[in-house]
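Summary for the steering committee. One of the milestones for this cycle was to obtain a three-dimensional model of the protein with FE3-S4 cluster bound, which we needed before selecting residues for the alanine scan. The sequence and ligand used are listed below.
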Amino acid sequence: MKNIKLAMPSLKDARMRKNKNIPTIRYTVETQYQSIGKGKTYAIFTYGCQGNEADSEVMAGILEQIGYTKSTDKMNADVVILNTCAIRENAEQRIWGVLGQLKGKKRENPDMIIGISGCMPQEENATNKILESYDFIDIVFGTHNKQNLPKLIYEAYMTKSKVVEVISSEGDILEDAPKIRESHHKAWVNIMYGCDEFCTYCIVPYTRGRERSRSKEDIIEEVKELVSLGYSEVTLLGQNVNAYGKDLGLEYTFGDLLYDLDKTGIKRIRFTTSHPRDLDEKTMQAMHDCDSVMPHLHLPVQSGDNEILKRMNRKYTYEEYISKITRLKELVPDLALTTDIIVGFPNETAEQFQNTLKLVQEAKFEGAFTFIYSRREGTPAATMPDSVLEQEKHERLNILNKYINAGYLSGHQRFLNQIVEVLVDGPSKSGDGMMCGYTPHLKLTHFKCNDLSLIGKMVKVKITDAKTWFMIGELCE
Ligand code: SAH
Ligand code: SF4
Ligand code: F3S
């Protein structure tokens, strides 16, 4: 297949942050693309973080607006898009695997359009590999130009070529794009895009560009609209939500936004992700003052060792982290705290790992995503010498997970015999007459019930059993 390279990625350019004034653009679709999907189906496979899930909802909205309908048979849709993640090597391996399966499908149906988007194409290694070895992929685009999807599909159809458009400087802030949300009671709401932290292990600042905040008016408007549509919960999204507004140069911060959103009438507000350095007093006060702001905080610590934290460029210490959470627990005494931790950062010693375990015990996390460090080409940590054996890293992860799992369990046990409010998501996966949902503290709760009309409603559940991964309760009449 011929290649049409409209734009190619460059991690070096991505680091530069050249685009100083980032405009907000209002989405419109050009007339020539308006019905290119008529009579055809689409499917989107989403990997990675909530940011990608939110992007996929926009892509679905764009595709449906130009006539496509959602396929019930995802592997055989007319347009299949893989919205990818580059955070760790194993995330990428999975995606190469799915692409392998799609290759066979394309042979059966040569008219199928296969697209790859998201964070992987932003890496030049990945895009070059696609160009060299994945001839059956038709469109390649990144995180900054999903609004061009109609154009890219059209070009690929018309030219029968592989169309590549990966932009390495920051995208505009896209407003008014259509969205097809996955849920009718919980919604993602982007408040900002990109990341300026440059933690030395992390690829995100390169794949997502510089920090850029949506205007507070657009955010508040979106939440008000969600309330009017009957939504009960929003999760505010950003790689570092506590940096909200800094790029706009206003006094208005994330804490102010929480106070304003509390007034919209939305029942539950969650947000992710917070950065320990930027989590400020106003945000903590808002968590205390606003009934709609849920008593759960995900605050990635990454490591409990000060030297490692420094080499990670996290810009806080063990002591500062503990002092932030101590303050927050004064304001929100029943807070549920969760985190992210990386083990096996280059040359992490056994003693440094012990410091992480010490912090885990002191912080009393009620959950964590734990990872083995994964080398990401182009990041500063990729060039750091590392003599820790792979097996040692796995052992550290196993030990850490034992502590973390104990935290999950005690986080559930503290609700035994209490009545909690659950926002009902639907039938439990186990399928034995149970339904499930989440409590304010983000505890997954199952209860006996088969009344599907309760989906999206708040119910009271009395907790009768606490397991590591969930709680079980009885519906209160
Ligand atoms: N902006 C968020 C989320 C970043 S990605 C934050 O700062 O927390 C989610 C998690 O993936 C990170 O918190 C980190 O724990 C992990 N992660 C990121 N890069 C990684 C890498 N190269 N290897 C292993 N884990 C990584
Ligand atoms: Fe990555 Fe750090 Fe930004 Fe999170 S804050 S996305 S870990 S660079
Ligand atoms: Fe992955 Fe990109 Fe999100 S690398 S975690 S999809 S920002």
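Key point for the committee: Residues 390-413 form the longest helix (24 residues).
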